[in-house]
Design a protein that fits this description.
This protein has about 220 residues and is of the alpha+beta class. It folds into two domains: about 5-75, Phosphorylase Kinase, domain 1 (2-Layer Sandwich); about 80-225, Orthogonal Bundle (Transferase(Phosphotransferase), domain 1). Helix content is about 45%, strand content about 20%. The chain has seven helices and ten strands. A five-stranded antiparallel sheet has the order 1-2-3-5-4, with helices on one face. The longest helix has 22 residues, at about 30-55.
């Protein structure tokens, strides 16, 4: 029997064996023909983003795309959701540096995640007895003594899109910064600093950070009024 593991406004996730099925739910307020078109377009867009991202950073591998039923079947990832476990990890600062580096890689390839929170990241210790494939090694972050000990998977690209706009990249960073402050407030500043340290590998680091400052100022202005 399928096991519902998450349910949001846009989709329901069920675990079926060693797979996760993402099913975009119908919206009763939309005409059927429009609803089907929107869900089909969003399913195709997410699948396309996942396929592109899979060549750059660790993400769940697509097993099947069911365009007729607006479903994506993904591999089930055995690991720890970072929203619940980042503070418990002894290597949490290194994990944050990996996060920053992977965001930089996505942004340099014009991929905007759209919902960058630690709820959408899975920490997976690597099996020491399992030999990594050449593709896995290419995706392993940070060239240091710990590079083969874990991977950080980015999941749920449902709100993602492709863009070379620095504003979109700055907003992506703003989202993860806000998520850290809300969910990991005790260590938020150290985590954010570690993420920025590695985000410096981005080709557009300076202009993105400058735009991030502008995005944050707009936010403070809105709160004041």
């Amino acid at each position: 029997m399928p096991n519902v593991i998450a349910q949001g406004a846009e989709a329901v996730l069920t675990k079926q064996g060693n797979t996760i099925v993402k099913n975009r739910v119908k919206k009763a307020y939309r005409l059927n023909i429009i609803d089907n078109k929107i869900r089909r377009q969003r399913t195709k867009k997410e699948a396309r983003l996942l396929e592109k991202a899979s060549r750059l950073v660790p993400v769940p591998q697509i097993i099947k795309i069911d365009k007729n039923n607006n479903k994506i079947v993904l591999e089930y990832l055995s690991g720890l959701k970072l929203s619940e476990n980042l503070d418990k990890l002894k290597n949490n600062l290194q994990v944050c540096r990996v996060i920053g580096q992977q965001i930089a890689i996505l942004h340099d390839n014009n991929i905007i995640h759209g919902d960058l929170t630690t709820s959408n990241m899975i920490y997976a210790p690597l099996n020491k007895n399992k030999r990594s494939s050449s593709n896995e090694k290419a995706l392993l972050p940070l060239r240091d003594k710990n590079r083969f000990k874990f991977k950080v998977y980015f999941i749920d690209f449902g709100l993602g899109f492709e863009s070379n706009n620095v504003e979109d990249k700055a907003v992506d960073l703003h989202l993860i910064k806000q998520a850290l402050e809300a969910k990991h407030f005790k260590r938020y500043e150290k985590y954010w600093k570690a993420i920025l340290e590695s985000y410096k590998t981005s080709k557009h680091y300076k202009e993105t950070i400058k735009r991030l400052e502008a995005v944050e100022k707009r936010g403070r202005y809105k709160q004041a009024y």
